[in-house]
Design a protein that fits this description.
CATH architecture: 3-Layer(aba) Sandwich
Largest sheet: 5 strands, parallel
Number of helices: 4
CATH superfamily: DsrEFH-like
Shape: globular
Radius of gyration: 13 Å
Number of strands: 5
CATH topology: Hypothetical Protein Ychn, Chain: A
Structural class: alpha/beta
Strand content: 15-25%
Strand order of the largest sheet: 4-3-2-1-5
Order of helices and strands: EHEHEHEHE
Helix content: 25-40%
Number of domains: 1
Distance between the termini: 20 Å
Length: 120
């Protein structure tokens, strides 16, 4: 099993199944004891804001707010710097526990031994 799993989710409400899959895989990995880093990019960037996950709906899927909470409790959630800037999202706007970081940090996370990376 990987020491660390890095997941980059690019989809939001525009592609709900892909979005839900990313959050579900990340939450299951956290529950299984894997170190998880979830990156919010593209349309998923909106889920870094309070209340936005509660607006997401997908039948037969785990509620996004619960998945996000488990990731904030047991993993790491990062909002892409450029994605945040394009949406006028600043450090003071995001949910407690979400950090804003860029490509250099992403690359440093995915190039280690035992790291698996997924993009949704």
């Amino acid at each position: 099993m990987a020491k660390q799993l890095v997941i980059k989710v690019t989809a939001g409400a525009d592609a709900p199944e892909r979005c839900s899959q990313a959050f579900t895989v990340a939450a299951v990995a956290v529950a299984s004891g894997v170190e998880v880093s979830l990156w919010l990019t593209g349309e998923s960037a909106w889920f870094a804001l309070p209340g936005r996950a509660a607006e997401f709906e997908l039948p037969h899927a785990a509620p996004l707010p619960e998945l996000l909470e488990s990731l904030l409790d047991g993993g790491r959630v990062t909002l892409c710097t450029q994605c945040a800037a394009r949406r006028d999202i600043g450090e003071g706007d995001v949910i407690d526990g979400v950090r804003i970081a860029g490509a250099q940090v992403f690359v440093s996370e995915i190039v280690g031994d035992g790291v698996q990376a997924l993009v949704y």
